[in-house]
């Protein structure tokens, strides 16, 4: 499985996290797919149709881990309400990506708040580097 496909499917798990596929969540994942991953609508639709098993995408570079977590937060916040299952999923990814347990809650709070404000990925990463 390609890295791009794995990354997209990991993002898609956030769309499914609350048990309801909100149109705004699909809009957000398709925007990330286009703008960040360079995918076409057809590719994304195919990946979703073929998504029989769960895929856990593991970025290697710290900035890529934060970017992925932020993309998940953007999808979670795109319908203007944070479901506890979306929150739990982001925390699981943070733990899986090696974030220290005592830093997970504060990091997730920042990611959700910045996603709600519409902060750019680059700006968020630069801000976190300064902390």
Classify the secondary structure makeup into a structural class: mainly alpha
End-to-end Cα distance, whole Å, is: 35 Å
- Label the overall shape: globular
- What is the helix/strand order? HHHHHHH
- Overall pLDDT metric: 91
- Output the radius of gyration: 14 Å
Low-confidence blocks of residues:
none
User: How many β-strand stretches?
Assistant: 0
How many helices? The count is 7
Strand residue percentage: under 5%
User: Percent of residues in helical segments?
Assistant: 55-70%
Q: How would you sum up the major sheet? A: none
What is this structure's SSE topology?
Layout: H1 3-16, H2 23-35, H3 41-49, H4 62-77, H5 84-96, H6 101-117, H7 121-129
Helix pairs in contact: 1-2, 1-4, 2-4, 4-5, 4-6, 4-7, 5-6
Structural commentary:
- The chain is an all-alpha fold.
- It is built from seven helices and no strands.
- Helix 1 (3-16) packs parallel to helix 4 and helix 4 (62-77) packs across helix 6.
List keywords for this structure.
131 residues; mainly alpha
What is the gist of this entry?
The protein has helices at 3-16, 23-35, 41-49, 62-77, 84-96, 101-117, 121-129. It is mostly helical and 131 residues long.
């Amino acid at each position: 499985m390609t890295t791009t496909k794995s990354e997209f499917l990991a993002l898609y798990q956030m769309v499914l996290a609350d048990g309801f596929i909100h149109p705004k969540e699909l809009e957000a994942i398709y925007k990330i797919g286009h703008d960040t991953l360079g995918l076409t609508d057809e590719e994304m639709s195919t990946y979703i149709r073929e998504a029989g098993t769960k895929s856990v995408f593991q970025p290697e570079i710290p900035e890529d881990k934060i970017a992925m977590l932020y993309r998940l937060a953007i999808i979670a916040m795109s319908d203007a309400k944070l479901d506890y299952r979306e929150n739990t999923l982001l925390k699981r990814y943070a733990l899986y990506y090696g974030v220290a347990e005592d830093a997970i809650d504060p990091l997730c709070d920042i990611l959700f708040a910045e996603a709600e404000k519409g902060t750019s990925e680059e700006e968020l990463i630069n801000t976190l580097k300064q902390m």
